[in-house]
């Protein structure tokens, strides 16, 4: 088999890149380790920057997003017993974010790919990347019957997330990585109940961080900070709802509608960046190259901005036979990545309880939050990062 771009991973970055390339007539094959149902069942991000929405539109996969996505003009920061609203739209000259689940983004892109008759091979194993330091790379994999296949290509796009094979295929010493683990995770719950508020509420509380989010006017998404080694089994629905409400201001707690959860999982928090994001004909994209803690809602949006830069480079490569865009990919992507890494680290540091910082750390957080919600300059800095920095 042969294709122009072999894409490893059928998450949002692989699917989006595939759809954009299809739009300019470039062939792709996507190799995915999991089943289609498993990929679609993973509940993750919920907040899209305008640039991400625009790119999904360019890929022809934004009809349902435009019809069902919820435009949000602000968020609230809750501390000291009350919620303080940040009017992001007013502070950024009219920008907003869109609340629309990653599960839906993935489904829309998959359906578009299937409707175009493009190939995705699910349930692959032993995916291996070869000869990407030269002009004739190829990928091998085993299908679900154990038969080995080989795909020759011009370029390999490593869109296979943090645990994928692409980054691990880079020769030792060619990568420099930067990492910070946080001593806590997020326990997330989905429930078919109306959200506590029409916008998101990020809460700093002495018992730990909490977040009120949503997927639709009938479906709520809530998170609470838990220790890094916590097991989800010890969290009954009752315990979750009690803990969530204890961490929210009284007015918000009273507005929480309780119901049975239909999804409950714990995600670890870490910051991670691997540099560079290109090795010859192999390009790392999205979570394969970087992870941010979810507090700033940036992971999926960064995956989309990497795709935007790589797509521009590949268009030049295939249309004009110019390498210039591909040569610039890593530096351009990383400049934006590090700003989001900084923002996500800052939001995480300001809003979570850190075991080691004690009362001094808590007072510093309170001072920072108080300053943030009362200073237009500080609120503007938060707002312009949250809605998404320019490309
Ligand atoms: P992934 O989604 O990880 O996709 C990689 C794909 O590659 C997977 O399908 C995987 O099965 C496949 N794969 C892996 N290894 C192999 C292999 N060897 N061979 C073949 N295929 C392979 N981001 C935001 O922007 N906003 C938010 O609000 C937000 N909230 C979040 C909340 C939580 C609880 C979590 C966990 C994450 C959140 N994120 C958020 C982050 C966001 O979900 C990720 O950044 C995003 O999924 C990255 O997309 P990706 O396509 O790069 O990687
Ligand atoms: C959601 C996730 C986030 O990380 C965030 O900052 C806001 C919302 C969500 O899943 O809805």
UniProtKB/TrEMBL annotation:
<protein>
    <submittedName>
        <fullName>4-hydroxybenzoate 3-monooxygenase</fullName>
        <ecNumber>1.14.13.2</ecNumber>
    </submittedName>
</protein>
<dbReference type="Pfam" id="PF01494">
    <property type="entry name" value="FAD_binding_3"/>
</dbReference>
<dbReference type="InterPro" id="IPR050631">
    <property type="entry name" value="PheA/TfdB_FAD_monoxygenase"/>
</dbReference>
<dbReference type="InterPro" id="IPR012733">
    <property type="entry name" value="HB_mOase"/>
</dbReference>
<dbReference type="InterPro" id="IPR002938">
    <property type="entry name" value="FAD-bd"/>
</dbReference>
<dbReference type="GO" id="GO:0018659">
    <property type="term" value="F:4-hydroxybenzoate 3-monooxygenase activity"/>
</dbReference>
<keyword id="KW-0560">Oxidoreductase</keyword>
<dbReference type="InterPro" id="IPR036188">
    <property type="entry name" value="FAD/NAD-bd_sf"/>
</dbReference>
<feature type="domain" description="FAD-binding">
    <location>
        <begin position="2"/>
        <end position="344"/>
    </location>
</feature>
